[in-house]
Design a protein that fits this description.
7 helices; globular
Length: about 160
Amino acid sequence: MSAVEFLQYLSAFSIIGLLTYICIHDFRHLIIENWTVVTLFGLYVIWAGLAGFPSVWTDVFMAALFFLLAFVMWIFRAMGAGDVKLYFVLGLLMGMEWAVVFIALLLVCSVLFWVGLRLSARYENKSNYVISRFRFFREEGVLPYGVVLTLSAVPAIIGRFFG
């Protein structure tokens, strides 16, 4: 394995690790920290730069498209600002060829999250943290959309990096 390949793998695994952190942090605190989005962008630049930026224009196109769609949702208060910024970077990371996989997984994960919200009202177990958080989301009318985004994006990103 060459040094370039090693650095590409290292940046890819770092991206997956950071997305995992974003998922857990958003679930707990309902916020996507700016440093995580900036770091993801930097890791994308490293990964794509090591590959010679083969699809930078289509990546930027997907990022802009995702950002614009998310921005419209933010205007209507359907999404937080952190989610909008995350959408941009996710568009870069998965590119055009894996965006369809992401969108399909986004639909599935959104439905599963909605089912979790509905089922959480039926359980009285207050000692289970996940059920308690789902009940909190339902009662407060909030949604950690970063959880759904990251769970949907990780398989598409893995497919792009390692496929």
